[in-house]
Amino acid sequence: xxSGGARLxxxxxxxxxxxxxxxxxxxxxxxxxxxMLTNVPDILDVAIMSELLRRLGCEVVRGDATVDIxxxxxxxxxADYDLVRRMRASITVLGPLLxxxxxVKVALPGGDAxxxxxxxxxxxxxxxxxxxxxxxxxYLVASARQLTGAxxxxxxPSVGATETIVLAAVLADGTTxxxxxxxxxxxxxxxxxxxxxxxxIGGIGTSTLEIQGVAALSPTTHAVLPDRIVAGxxxxxxxxxxxxxxxxxxxxxxxxxxxxKLTSAGATVSTDGVGFRxxxxxxxxAVDVVTLPYPGFPTDLQPMMLTLNAVADGxxxxxxxxxxxxxxxxxxxxxxxxxxxxxGHHAVVRGKPMLSGxxxxxxDIRAGAALVLAGLVAEGVxxxxxxxxxxxxxxxxxxxxxxxxxxxxxxxxxxxLF
Length: 418
Ligand code: EPU
Prior knowledge:
The chain folds into two domains: 2-14 and 226-408, Enolpyruvate transferase domain (UDP-n-acetylglucosamine1-carboxyvinyl-transferase, Chain), CATH 3.65.10; 90-216, UDP-n-acetylglucosamine1-carboxyvinyl-transferase, Chain (Alpha-beta prism), CATH 3.65.10. Strand 8 and strand 9 (139-143) form a beta hairpin. It is of the alpha/beta class. It is built from 14 helices and 26 strands. 54% of the residues are buried. The strands form seven sheets. The chain has a four-stranded mixed beta sheet with strand order 23-25-1-26. A four-stranded mixed beta sheet has the order 2-15-17-16, with helices on one face. It starts with a strand and ends in a 10-residue tail after the last strand. It is elongated, with a radius of gyration of 21 Å. The protein binds uridine-diphosphate-2(N-acetylglucosaminyl) butyric acid. Uridine-diphosphate-2(N-acetylglucosaminyl) butyric acid binds next to helix 1, helix 5, helix 6 and helix 12.
């Protein structure tokens, strides 16, 4: 339940990145022994990945912002539907298990309701490395007696496909190059983690990666990088509520285009040693946004920017290039009175001074967070249903909002996981 009208003010701490920690946890499978991760967020998706690793025979111990993963000499090689359907990132175990076990069976994923999200580039990449892959009874089944390095060109800089290929290639025989690779900070974090385990990876952070396979990797200790999407969510929240929020631990250098958009909307953004601060005095101005792979504007902040434009002065065009089904969010925003029309990849948003509170439903993590933010600038009360989606990616979201001065209440606690 969100009551609109509050101005957010104060400091908020950014947690470790969801889309990094999940991949690091899966990558731990590449080495026998205990890998230790710090700066681990307390989110539902980490609990799901922990359970998945346990079912593969690992011991997973969660501490205060830490997770220790002990991998046996021979892990299991089957990830079942029960867990994979809850979280698409489960597919990240594909590459490591193929490399370690020579065979893998992973249920085709579910996860967010934000589009078809194929696996064709993952599969094509593994086939280039010598694997055979088929779909059988809802499972992707792949095997390879010995993976062999090869050149791989991606049609699109897919984050997931780049990860799968890198995670298989680190233990392949010979050199793999990945052209048109994704460059997201999460992927850089993963590559740096793999290098600390003994992998040989060149071109980290560029669109061409060169991976020289090694015979074995060793466990390591690694701090998860701060979550740029969580940091960006707080930045938009400050701008939206004409607030003043310091995002402690936020990496402005990972959010350059997003923060520049907020500056165009009228915010003042400053950085210091601990993070960045967003201050907004007036009604935001409308700003056009086009989502693109990193370093472009992140699709995961698109619903928040749509919300900002819904109450901005003027008309904006928001273009979604990654996930067509993200427009499901528009129907929910319209329930709050937003004036948005979509056509293909584009949405035209005509700003109104304020939205109007109503019951709405979250269909994915980011839509859920954006609907809560929309409630902050809606007159009256907004009820966000299916808010458990937000728990998948935001630690203590409601508590942080309350600390910043919002009038938000959680009606029921998080649902039991198993
Ligand atoms: N795609 C294919 N075939 C493939 C791979 C991808 O068609 O083999 C398409 C997808 O259908 C999608 C587009 O390419 O339309 C982008 O997919 P990508 O592989 O880049 O994304 P992802 O790995 O599935 C990750 C994040 C998403 C984030 C995107 C883009 C994780 C767990 N998820 O997804 O995060 O939106 O990259 O940056 O890392 C979120 O956190 O809420 C979230 C959805």
